[in-house]
Specification:
By secondary structure, the chain is α+β, with helices and mostly antiparallel strands. It has one domain. The chain is built from three helices and seven strands. It has a seven-stranded mixed β-sheet with strand order 5-4-1-2-3-7-6. A hairpin with a 2-residue loop joins strand 6 and strand 7. It is globular, with a radius of gyration of 15 Å.
């Protein structure tokens, strides 16, 4: 069981009617027993992922997948409280194989946090 978090960016002030909707960007997922898994973009340098993620998180209103608003401070507190959970980047004991190998390529650590640059929810 888990909860996804999104940032809803404001629509462009000069947008036409067709593109005036705000954008919903996935920030990550909190799952029971696991550390928070941050959503990264594939083109983000791994060593800059946390600062780029933080920039994204500050770009609009944060809501969970149920539409409930969450403050950035509240989300960061949740993330810190989950740091003792199981890591998404530790594959010790996991069998070698296509699924785990593709996950190993997408999951990485930045500043002590778990990131993934493949789409997940």
């Amino acid at each position: 069981m888990g909860t996804n978090y999104y940032v809803h960016t404001p629509a462009c002030a000069n947008a036409c009617e067709h593109c005036s909707a705000s954008e919903e960007l996935h920030l990550g997922k909190s799952s029971m027993g696991w550390r928070f898994c941050f959503q990264a973009e594939p083109d983000w340098p791994h060593e800059q992922a946390y600062s780029l993620w933080l920039q994204r998180a500050k770009s609009g209103e944060i809501r969970d997948e149920y539409g409930e608003p969450v403050t950035l401070d509240g989300l960061l507190a949740l993330i810190e409280a989950k740091q003792d959970g199981r890591s998404h980047t530790d594959y010790t004991g996991a069998p070698r194989g296509f699924l785990y190998d593709s996950m190993r390529n997408a999951d990485f650590d930045c500043d002590g946090y778990d990131f993934c640059d493949r789409y997940f929810t």
